[in-house]
Backbone:
């Protein structure tokens, strides 16, 4: 009789590419000088991705990418947002299609971790009506204020939030003092607090073969952000909190010998095994 416990499988899903001024990613990365008063701005391209953990105790999804209806003349994103943060993805990159490739339906997901509620991380939350949506309470309250004030431009998308409300999602808000919330054996929610956004969450995942992974999302955009020295992004709510979080992640990574997966690092993403190639366990 085989009593071996099934291993969790971790899938990295490619959800397309976004471009933006590098100053949004690394603030003041190219400041003008007396000798070079007109240094050029630079658009950089970076990956949008989500992570599925197929766990014996239930399927866990980390982030939900952009909504397929984001771009274009009738898109959910404001014209200025589409111009500043253009997202390109073919249909196979849409989250529901990536899940379908793995024979997973949205209703099969037990938990969705919303690292934060920006346009490229929370765009498909509305699909997961069966799941518990885990989000930082400060982030949740901030997004609802954007909605109540009818703000149509920016990183929080009014039509996305409207769809969350209409679909009556099941929210589990993480309070400021809550941390290390155990979701399943070897999977914990990390409370990063304020920094890049009002309230950031990460995920700590222990895999028998691959080892330990910290999913940092936009608490750390890229390896360059991570440093040292730490380089904050141009999109930031709490610069002190941002630096504190990066140093905390560095300490956790050292303590647990964990790999840190950044939110939008093109070089790192190129090295990761994608869901259409296999998985980590």
Residues:
């Amino acid at each position: 009789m085989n009593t071996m416990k099934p291993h969790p499988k971790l899938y990295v899903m490619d959800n397309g590419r976004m471009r933006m001024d590098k100053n949004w990613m690394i603030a003041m990365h190219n400041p003008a000088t007396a000798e070079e008063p007109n240094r050029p701005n630079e658009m950089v391209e970076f990956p949008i991705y989500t992570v599925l953990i197929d766990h014996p105790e239930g399927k866990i999804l980390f982030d939900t990418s952009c909504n397929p209806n984001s771009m274009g003349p009738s898109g959910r994103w404001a014209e200025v947002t589409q111009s500043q943060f253009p997202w390109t993805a073919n249909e196979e990159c849409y989250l529901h299609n990536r899940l379908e490739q793995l024979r997973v339906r949205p209703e099969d997901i037990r938990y969705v971790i919303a690292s934060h509620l920006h346009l490229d991380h929370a765009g498909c939350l509305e699909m997961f009506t069966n799941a518990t949506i885990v989000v930082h309470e400060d982030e949740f309250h901030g997004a609802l204020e954007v909605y109540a004030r009818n703000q149509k431009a920016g990183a929080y998308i009014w039509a996305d939030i409207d769809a969350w409300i209409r679909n009556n999602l099941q929210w589990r808000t993480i309070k400021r003092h809550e941390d290390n919330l155990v979701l399943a054996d070897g999977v914990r929610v990390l409370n990063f607090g304020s920094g890049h956004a009002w309230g950031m969450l990460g995920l700590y995942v222990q895999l028998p073969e691959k080892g330990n992974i910290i999913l940092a999302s936009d608490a750390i955009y890229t390896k360059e952000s991570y440093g040292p020295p730490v380089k904050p992004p141009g999109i930031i709510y709490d610069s002190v909190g941002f630096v504190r979080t990066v140093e905390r992640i560095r300490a956790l990574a050292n303590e647990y010998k964990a790999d840190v997966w950044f939110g939008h690092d093109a070089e790192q993403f190129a090295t990761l095994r994608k869901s259409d190639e296999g998985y980590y366990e």
Observations:
- Residues 9-27+42-271 form a domain with the Metallo-beta-lactamase; Chain A fold (CATH 3.60.15.10).
- The longest strand covers residues 9-21.
